[in-house]
Amino acid sequence: MDILKYGFMPDMMPKEANGIPARVTAVHKERYELVCEAGTVSARLKTKEYFFGCESFPTTGDFVLINHNPSGDSLIIATLPRKTLFSRRDPTPGQGEQAVAANFDHVFIMQSLNQDFNLRRLERYLTLAWQSGASPIVILTKADLIDDVGQYVSDVEKIALGVPVYAVSSKTGTGLDELSAYMQPGKTIVFLGSSGVGKSSLVNALAGEEIMTVNGIREDDDKGRHTTTHRQLVMLKNGSMIIDTPGMRELGMWDVSQGIGEAFDDVEVFLGKCRFSDCKHQSEPGCAIKAAIAEGKLSQERWESYNNLKSEAKYSDDKEAFLRQKQQRNKNIAKINRQRKSAKKKI
To answer: Which of 22, 26, 129, 224 could form a cystine bridge with 232, CB 3.0-4.6 A?
Structure first.
């Protein structure tokens, strides 16, 4: 098998490196599916390098070095540097960051045009997509369910600044041709979206064959059954690759210092323009944020969403510091309330 077709470049190989290059196509707990010059193989991590060393645990899309074993599991001995990485806060308490996918060129952020459509959730996906280092594209699926998709596209474009937005239907084929520009040989695209948005249907439509199992959605709430149970990389006939992910309704913020600036550029443009450098954007005179909201240049919902994601990211980055600041803030509020009550009594 030609590993170059899977996006591997010779200059990725470290000098004096041991082992042969491979790409992770799926992760099943402690075992990995890989493609390499020997074909498709199974592998596990070499204990010394990963559990007692400093190697980053591989995820789907990663390029790794392995000691190939033709009669059993190969050993993964190193994770090669990543050009892009999509991660989130691990849903398991106390586990920190969870790598979701690596080494992709575009992020297809998918939302369906049914009751599950949610602009606030889309903002979360956009923030994490920008942070990954790849280019986000918003895909509005199930366009056949809506008579006028123009309003939906317009609403998304207002928060997805500079990001292409496409309304598509896997059922009728609407909009699929516009996605072909991204489906190029050697390119990798990661699909992100909640259960029921039609990721598997879109993969099948783009592939021109059924390579993903498609399940229906629950009629009572338009939420999907979890068709994809693990992250996997699939090579299409035209040489492009797709990383499909399990439906992730909640995306915990991790390090989004760069991503939030890209996703909320329309908000951050007003920061630093207040009369006072320590403005809290609450009741201070000369607040640029309050003025922008009053003048209709910035929506209240957009400002609140920005603050919510910033707070969540700060909490994830340094939980103890966040809790200390919150405790101190509560103490300050209590102190002010006591002073006000004392002043009233004197009157």
So the answer is: 26
- What spatial distance separates the first Cα and last Cα of the chain, rounded to whole Å? 86
Reported pTM: 0.75
Residues of the chain with pLDDT under 50: 216-229, 248-250, 252-254, 318-326
Per-residue H/E/C for the chain: CCHHHHCCCHHHCCCCCCCEEEEEEEEECCEEEEEECCEEEEEEECHHHHHCCCCCCCCCCCEEEEECCCCCCEEEEEECCCCCEEEEECCCCCCCEEEEEECCCEEEEEEECCCCCCHHHHHHHHHHHHHHCCEEEEEEECHHHCCCCHHHHHHHHHHCCCCCEEECCCCCCCCHHHHHHHCCCCCEEEEECCCCCCHHHHHHHHHCCCCCCCCCECCCCCCECCCCCCCEEEECCCCCEEEECCCCCCCCCCCCCCHHHHHCHHHHCCCCCCCCCCCCCCCCCCCHHHHHHHCCCCCHHHHHHHHHHHHHHHHHHCHHHHHHHHHHHHHHHHHHHHHHHHHHHHC
